[in-house]
User: What shape does this take?
Amino acid sequence: MRMGPGAMNHSIIDLTLSSSNMDLNWCLLGEEATRSDHEVIAWDVLGSPHPTDITSTETTGWDISGWDPAKKSEEEEKRKAEERQRKARECYLAGLGRTPILSDSSTKEEVTEAVGSLREAMTVTLDGHARKKHWCSRSKPWWCEDLKKLRKDLGRARRKWRVAEMSRVKAARQEFRRAIRKAKRDCWNRFLQEADGNKVWTAAAYTTPRIDKTGQALVREDGSTAEGHHEREQAILQAHFPPGPLGVFEPAQGGKAFERVNAQLVGSLLGAAANTSAPDDDRISAGIVKVFWQWDKQRITQLVRACIWQGFHLGIWKTAKGVVIPKLGKPDYAKVRAYRVISLLDIISKLLERTAAHLIADHLERKRGLHEGQFGCRKRRSCVDVVAIMMNHTQQAWEQKKIAGALFMDVKAAFNNVDKTFLGKRMEELGLEADLIRWTMSFMSDRQVKLVLDGEIGDENPVDTGVSQGSPAAPILFVTYLSGIFDEVERTAVGVSGLSFVDDIRWRAEEKTQRRWRASCRWQQPWPSSGLERTAWHLTTEKRRQRFSGGRREKAPRRKPGEGWR
Assistant: This one.
């Protein structure tokens, strides 16, 4: 930035502030020398401000706590809560009075009509009998009636400062600011006291410093730069939703998996859903659906059962909002791969996906369809178990005077590269019911995503490959898709065994010498389209505790007396 005509001096802008509705493009110029620890930021405003998507007058959700008598302390409040709940139940059932409950012989058109009626009845009931939420970027959860009164007192003092003394204005302002600090502190303490489960980690996230990456230019995988909102959106779409390979798979008809769907199963899966999960455009959360479930269990159960029997995932559930969020711990957030896209889905759709995932996982566990070395996305198979098994295998190799070696690999863009054609064939090989396979193919077909980038919702874009991150069915579908590679590698490379946690894979081999170990691991990838990438390989010997990484030997650090191996 030059100051004055012909001036050779310049300054560095290390802080840029703009409104949230301003299209701002910026990037770091790391090659520019600044003679300090600062980086040069190049930025420009791409256009005039545009209106924000959410205002304080729009409904962003509903609060149904007024329906629960158990949350009221006084008898009068309990009576009012029971009355509100009764009126809401009558309104909901009246809205669905003309829509029959589905059966096992219902058609896809009847299922679509039933879902539309169910959503409309819920929305009308909530609009009429629940308190509307109007959350926006300026919302203050710590605001209360006492602060409103103090603000009015401050306004009166300001208007009368010419008549009264200025000290009254200062006293009112000081009292108002002190009350605000106390309200914020009480709000935070109350949140910490009531925090349980995942809310503890939410509190940790609130206290972690964050860098605002709004408007940052992105570097594509080919090295080109994407600037501006549209270019960055297209770069993310190309990186995270690549075009799928050509292939046709026609699942068989029939199947009896739907027969296991009953009210007990659906109710338990709905009860396990988190009330705080972000809802879709319909703004109906899991906590709200749990209340409607108590009033209409049979209707919701039959809806889930009919969708699986038909092998049908509704079209209105196939368009999702994809929220772009940065991955933790990445060194460079200018790269497009440093972000992930999480899909926000309809809660009834997620209930159906959760039911299908349970049926698929139950079949695979009973029939032992997955590899024994696959951990993650499965019950009672955690990351701690993987580490314990690796340590145990290494210790056994040392006791036998062998070298234990491991080759670590990662599946590139794991969930986004799942091919539905291959997945369908793999599910058939594992003996899954035909109705579950048909539902999976319908779930993965004709999907669309609307990216939410910098708070702005983009247009609908088709997606023809991968499974949605954020879907309850995505984890089990991915491990099913990847399960065949373990048997193939172990058959090709004799003496090599596989162990994985979701998309991180480790291949283990034990030999007497390092040369023989390297020879045993010189095998080609059996499936070039699987997206496997080698990240590192490590050898450890019991005698010298030497570590080898990528072919370069590194001597382990010396031990101090009484100190164990690191």
Observations:
- Confidence is low (pLDDT under 50) at residues 1-10, 51-55, 524-566.
- Residues 237 and 394 are 42 Å apart (CA to CA).
